Amino acid sequence: MINNKAIYDAICNAKSNKKKAFALLIDPDKIDIGSIDKLVALAQNAGTDFFLIGGSLVLNNELDELITRIKSLCDIPVILFPGSTLQLSYKADALLLLSLISGRNADLLIGKHVESAPFLKKSPLEIISTGYMLIDGGVPTSVSYMSNSNPIPAGKYEIAVCTAIAAEMLGMKMIYMDAGSGALNPVSASMISAVSSAIDIPLIVGGGIKTAEAAHNAVSSGANIIVVGNAIEKDPSLIKELAAAVHF
Q1: Cα 90 from chain centroid?
Q2: What are phi and psi of 150, to 5 degrees?
Q3: pTM
Q4: Residue 13 in 3-state DSSP?
Q5: Which CATH architecture fits 6-246?
Q6: What pLDDT, in 10s, does the model give residues 81-129?
Q7: Domain definitions of the chain by residue range
Q8: CA–CA separation, 12 vs 200, rounded Å?
Q9: Helix axes 157-169, 189-198, angle to 10 degrees
Q10: Are 209 and 226 in contact (CB under 8 A)?
Q11: Which residues of 69-86 are buried (b: 16+ CB within 10 A; e: fewer)?
């Protein structure tokens, strides 16, 4: 099946018009289906642009149910942000096909993609090829442990820039720089600015963004989409404040 490009085109159009987007990351293992209604209502009121669904592990079988419930409550696009091939679902609108370009783990550069390709080829999902870059956020994270790869050092802007350029040349449609869930420090404004200035494709930034100031700094430095997950898990009321900082 040939997938449409509605979501990717919307992201590119927003970038062209200098509009920023706020995405709420939901880990299926950390959300109670019974509480999703309240979270979706908060997200809608805040003007959330996307839901990202995914995590490092899969401890339950509620992925389809979670996505179905979210989509029954709102029209906000639901995008899979899979930590493994077990986190795939036809119920979502799109999928970030992540290639871990910051590491040298062949399984996460191409191996897992080969395994999931038949499923994805037949799916109705919009597939968005995304270069995924782990950036050191000050502490070891689940994603660095599970991926068996080292993050790019926080101060090595040139490595991040060259990695992003290479991904764009290879035909990837977006770059996702992630300090990881629970990071002490978000990706720095200087690194975001350096990478954003070097590429023409949309740039997503997540990990360690806990305050409106951090979210504002990220988009002001060149990020097109800000992703927040851990901070919202701890305090859902922050959604409105963080989204407003992105949509300034």
Answers
A1: 18
A2: -90, 140
A3: 0.95
A4: helix
A5: Alpha-Beta Barrel (3.20)
A6: 998 888 899 999 999 999 999 999 999 999 999 999 999 999 999 999 9
A7: 6-246
A8: 10
A9: 30
A10: yes
A11: bbbeeeebbbbbbbbbee
